[in-house]
Amino acid sequence: MGDFWVFGYGSLIWRPGFAHVETRRARLHGYRRSLCVYSFVHRGTRERPGLVLGLDRGGSCIGLAFRVPGDLRNEVITYLRERELVTNVYLERMLSIRLDNDATNGERVLAVAYVVDRAHEQYAGALDAADAASVVRGAVGQSGKNEDYVLSTLEHLEALGIRDHWLEEVAKRI
């Protein structure tokens, strides 16, 4: 099989953790970046959950697409599944994304992406910025403070020139 793409919208942007040969800005239509997943492990606990990002239905999301050599397919997919499917709150999908590059006029490719499972117990739903900030504030898990996760994600998005007004509002409130 040939090369394939992986779509990153949150921590994969700033910490992909897998080998890739190209990185491109990309847009996924039909899903939006949202703090819609309760974190019981990495950024919170079952007693005091935090929130992490998920791709939820509606809108669109600008992120990064990583092109992975085909000979690394099994290794990278195994890594992504171990990372993203720990509690099965995400569903692995092949989704059409539009690569952002003037030379290709927005070439469409299929990419591996992880979308939230709305039927999962960790699905937090569509929270407003104040409610999301309230959950994030003070939550801590194995990977550290929930606030650090949100602020780091926003920092990396801003460095790439990607605006996420809702996430910016959450950050102001924490």
UniProtKB/TrEMBL annotation:
GO CC terms, sorted: cytoplasm
Pfam families linked to this entry: ChaC (PF04752)
Superkingdom of origin organism: Bacteria
Leading EC class: lyase
Signal peptide, first to last residue: none
A GO MF term: glutathione specific gamma-glutamylcyclotransferase activity
Keyword annotations: Lyase
UniProt-listed Enzyme Commission number(s): 4.3.2.7
Gene Ontology biological-process entries: glutathione catabolic process
Full protein name: glutathione-specific gamma-glutamylcyclotransferase
Organism per entry: Mesorhizobium prunaredense
